[in-house]
Design brief:
With about 425 residues, the protein is of the alpha+beta class. It has three domains: about 5-105, PUA domain (Archaeosine Trna-guanine Transglycosylase, Chain: A, domain 4); about 110-215, Transcription Regulator spoIIAA; about 235-425, 3-Layer(aba) Sandwich (Rossmann fold), CATH 3.40.50.150. Helix content is about 25%, strand content about 30%. The protein has helices at about 50-55, 110-130, 165-170, 170-180, 240-245, 265-270, 285-295, 310-320, 340-360, 375-390; strands spanning about 5-10, 15-20, 25, 35-40, 40-45, 60, 65-70, 75-80, 85-90, 100-105, 135-140, 150-155, 155-160, 185-190, 205-210, 215-220, 220-225, 255-260, 275-280, 305, 325-330, 360-370, 395-400, 420-425. It has a seven-stranded mixed beta sheet, with helices on both faces. A six-stranded mixed beta sheet has the order 6-10-9-8-5-7. Strands 11-12-13-14-15 form a five-stranded mixed beta sheet. The N and C termini lie far apart (about 70 Å).
Length: about 425
């Protein structure tokens, strides 16, 4: 028979207490009275713990049986099975579909030392992946066991996103840890992601610590000026760094079309890889202006950059008789949620069909999707549908994901968002 009381240490505050169910009886050292608290806990419905035990980190609101202790959004609380067996601690948000994000499977305190240890472990991995580099994704959210936290390092600057209310409430603590570990010139907040709306968090950006300045990062000898406050995501698309390098093997003496070129990443790698000519298109005038600066830095000024809507430009180029040996498609996410997946797949089919029509026989199609709502299988099906429309056949040469500093968790398909394929076109 289970004893009605048990002696424990609070994982959040560190004090000793006696527990009876969700009640805490805390003894005062100065007086003989007991203070009674209610522990902050959520208890799962029966059989809802299997995904957590398998390695997933989220609990959805419809999986919860009961909530104790009146926790507020962002509080650290205990997660229990239906039979009240301890599963872990994490952030709670009663306003989100993702009601709980796991921080630890142990009853440990979530303090400065906790974040210091997790971030240090993430840094050690990046130093192993990219020795000598000072620019990389330092923390990749759930995949680095820091749910809802993104930190990118651009030389002596740190750019971060807090996508969960629990992390957002600890922004000052996180900055303290980062200053202790890195002594950066500045810490920048790029909290403009629409994912924050799901946590009822406002969109914002700015300098949290230090003074912002210009910085130029290097990827395999190719340099990019990073716009820390204006650039996409946290300043630059670091997730494609290895894919940009991989494309160079296909571009020697080739004519290349880079669609959705942003600030010129693939276009400049293609030019540096020996492409005969490079034409790059993006709808953002600011991105094209930055791309021209990056081309100048890398001494490849002959790239033809143009502002335009790719959906309109592909048929226009076809009508003009333009043809290419390599076409690169790296569009923004077409799907922000499951409801828009069908529309996204239609968009992928359309632009890939348009790209295939522009390719010379034996050409190379490089194509990507950055939405985790679109599965690899569905994306490939959309490519095949586009190939049928264009009356072309595809040979898959490479199938890749994000760079290694964007790790994924097999137990969390949501962490594997980027699909990147290279195809020979017949």
């Amino acid at each position: 028979m289970k004893a009605p009381f048990s002696n424990r240490t609070c994982p959040i505050f560190g004090f000793q207490y006696h527990a009876f169910g969700p009640l805490l009886f805390v003894a005062s050292r100065s007086i003989s009275l007991y203070f009674v608290f209610v522990k902050k806990q959520i208890i799962l419905r029966k059989n809802e713990e299997h995904r957590i035990l398998a390695g997933h980190q989220w609990v959805f609101s419809n999986e919860i049986k009961s909530v104790h202790g009146n926790p507020e959004a962002g509080d650290v609380i205990e997660l229990l099975r239906h039979d009240e067996k301890f599963l872990g601690i994490g952030f709670y948000n009663p306003h989100s579909l993702i009601a709980f994000r796991l921080l630890s499977r142990e009853p440990e305190a979530i303090t400065f030392e906790f974040f210091e240890q997790r971030i240090t472990r993430a840094l050690q991995l990046r130093k192993r992946l990219y020795p000598g580099s000072e620019s990389f994704r330092l923390v990749h959210g759930e995949a680095d066991f820091l749910p809802g936290l993104i930190i990118d390092k651009y030389n002596e600057y740190l750019s971060l996103q807090t996508l969960a209310v629990g992390m957002d409430r600890r922004l000052t603590l996180l900055c303290d840890v980062l200053e202790s570990l890195f002594h950066p010139k500045a810490i920048i907040e790029r909290n403009e992601s629409p994912l924050r709306a799901l946590e009822q968090l406002p969109l914002k950006q700015g300098v949290l610590r230090g003074t912002i300045g210009q910085t130029i990062i290097s990827e395999y000898g190719v340099k990019f000026k990073v716009s820390l406050l204006e650039g996409q995501k946290t300043g630059f698309f670091l997730d494609q760094r290895e894919n940009r390098l991989a494309v160079q093997r296909y571009v020697k003496n080739a004519s290349v079309l880079d669609c959705f070129c942003n600030e010129g990443g693939f276009a400049i790698f293609a030019a540096r890889g020996g492409a005969a000519r490079v034409h790059a298109i993006d709808s953002s005038e600011n991105a094209i202006a930055n791309a021209k600066v990056n081309a100048t830095i890398n001494e490849v000024p002959d790239i033809k950059f143009e502002v335009g809507d790719v959906f309109e430009w592909l048929p226009k180029l076809l009508e003009e008789g333009a043809r290419f040996d390599v076409v690169i498609l790296d569009p923004p996410s077409f799907s922000r949620n499951k409801k828009t997946v069908a529309t996204a797949l239609k968009g992928y089919k359309e632009i890939n069909a348009g790209a295939l029509r522009l390719l010379n026989p034996g050409g190379i199609l490089v194509t990507a999707s950055c939405s985790h709502h679109v599965s690899s299988e569905s994306f490939i099906e959309s490519l095949e549908a586009g190939a049928r429309i264009a009356h072309r056949s595809l040979q898959m040469l490479e199938w890749r994901g994000a760079a290694a500093d964007h790790p994924t968790l097999p137990a969390m398909p949501e962490t594997a968002y980027l699909k990147f394929g290279v195809f020979a076109v017949l």
